[in-house]
């Protein structure tokens, strides 16, 4: 950083940028790892990566295009956990069942039955249209990358598609329209529960054995490798109840043999019943087992980790693994709250996801994460670090922690607007009524805790390309039209 570029000679500029046209974005305020700078010029190369951050206009000449944005520019956020198709029934499972006159007796498991009915009804075209809508909403909320935990692999009756990776292809086709970056996480799913065969409703998700799954994973990997460079391939053993220890070892050996850096995402300890079943079957709770016998390391992302002990979370922190928290879904499904202050105090890495997409709102996820802690502990500012200039601000601390942890969990070059990272930038509207009067230090606190109603997210860039302008995705009308068609058809075929 600095004013270096202003003094470059033509020869130096040519050596640095070649003869290609570069993009220069000017922001009134720019988020930096150590605070803010104002104003700032971000030079973006043809590959969409940041080549320079300067506090004065870089001398570029005619080869540069300049654009200027008011507001507060912050890094694009990774959303580490989502199942796109579940968005289509958001708000349709909020109806109490059980004893007449009493509160509902519904649970994660009764919600799952409704999810299976919807999953059974979707065609590949539907999957693509829903994914495009989800990705559009993610971008409008300030997420620029999604970890797609993808398990809707086969046709309705379990028949394999002619192209094994048909539905994975549709997720990436949606990303062509939305512009989001995808870390595709094909899900391995072999059992309904510890030692139990798949149920009929799970036939769309399952693989008959590790070899069949690896053929699907290899096909998905090819789809990713032949697509835009912003996409990544990882792998997702669904959970320890769906993948046995020997299967887990075999599939990880093969995946990491092919892609040593591939990220591994797994649902872990979301529900008490699952933890008890794991103890009965493997002799340990899921996270303890993963840390001791599962090969947990910095490539892993444990999704939820809700019902965990301090010892388990210390082991996760030591391994350098990320915990992917999904506060709105965890609240919606009655999971419980994650032990955040203890995990942060041992250096634990966190990231944010929206899982079922019952809500797609970055600020709301971070707000609910903190509020769950406050309600449980009867204290305030649980994620803050008293005495630290930046991290005492709870909104800033949560944002920065999830930006860094999310970049790691998705293997995406995000998390900061710095030289060498992709130019994924979210501009918060300085003229939003709830940002008026805020100095940069408290902007992210205001974003997290008072961003209700009209969103503060105004402009969004992925790899230097603007995909949201004035709060609206650039392809909003066509994406919404296609999604509306899917919803109309589903209303006729699902109960
Ligand atoms: Zn999930």
Structural notes for this entry:
With 495 residues, the protein is α/β, with parallel strands linked by helices. It folds into 2 domains: 4-75 and 416-477, Urease, subunit C, domain 1 (Roll), CATH 2.30.40; 77-410, Metal-dependent hydrolases (TIM Barrel), CATH 3.20.20.140. It is 37% helix and 20% strand. The protein contains 15 helices and 18 strands. It has helices at residues 10-17, 108-120, 124-141, 166-178, 210-225, 245-258, 272-282, 286-293, 310-319, 327-332, 340-345, 362-377, 394-410, 440-450, 476-493; strands at residues 22-32, 35-37, 40-44, 50-54, 64-75, 77-82, 143-150, 181-188, 232-233, 236-237, 264-268, 300-304, 322-325, 349-352, 425-428, 457-462, 465-469, 472-473. Strands 1, 2, 3, 4, 5, 15, 16, 17 and 18 form a 9-stranded mixed β-sheet that branches. Strand 12 (300-304), helix 9 (310-319) and strand 13 form a beta-alpha-beta unit. The longest helix is centred in the N-terminal third of the chain and has 18 residues, at 124-141. The model is unreliable at 1-10 (pLDDT under 50). The structure holds zinc ion (ZN). The site of zinc ion has 6 residues, from loops.
